[in-house]
Amino acid sequence: MPASRRVTRAVNGVLDLAPRRGEVSLARLVESVAEDRGRPIELKMAELPPGVCGQWRQYADRDVFLIQQGLPAGDRTLAHELGHLVLGHEGISVVEAARDLTEFASSDLIGYMLNQRTGCMGPSGEDLEQEAEDFAALLIYRLGRLPSDRASIVQVRLGEAFG
Q: In this predicted model, what pLDDT tens digit does every residue of 21-60 receive, in sequence order?
């Protein structure tokens, strides 16, 4: 199933922020998104609960993307978490989750709950997860097609349109 127009617009918006000179990597795109939003995004490797590849944690002064250590597809997971952020998916803040659950929960349960996003559970949650996956797939695909020192994103879009 092709990416929705909303996902395509989001990927285009992120790629429009890419530096015009030098290598364009996923990490540099995350930095560009952070600069554009005026809010830092930290990337950290972490030991996450079983079955969790990545998390987007929202703090009062920054966002943090946690990526499972040793993950073979770390870029895909990072792109997925960036997709949640760029697409405006609502999450639950770390402070709110901890305040609600800390006194009753084990550390494993807290870690699990911090991975849950408001709106990403139940029937509509699958749609948000799929949208983030579509974003990740399209962004990784387009990053792979960018020249190492690109002059214009137009080259990439023309190549996609006409093969």
A: 777 899 999 999 999 999 999 999 999 888 889 999 888 8
Instruction: Answer whether residue 151 is part of any domain.
Output: no
End-to-end Cα separation, the chain, in angstroms? 19
Place of tokens 């999450």: 91
- What's the structural domain count of the chain? 1
Specify the 3-state DSSP secondary structure of 27.
helix
**pTM listed for this prediction:** 0.72
**What secondary structure letter does DSSP report for 33?**
H
Contact (Cβ atoms closer than 8 angstroms) between residue 94 and residue 63:
no
Domain assignment present for 159: no
Domain assignment of residue 41, given as a range? 5-146
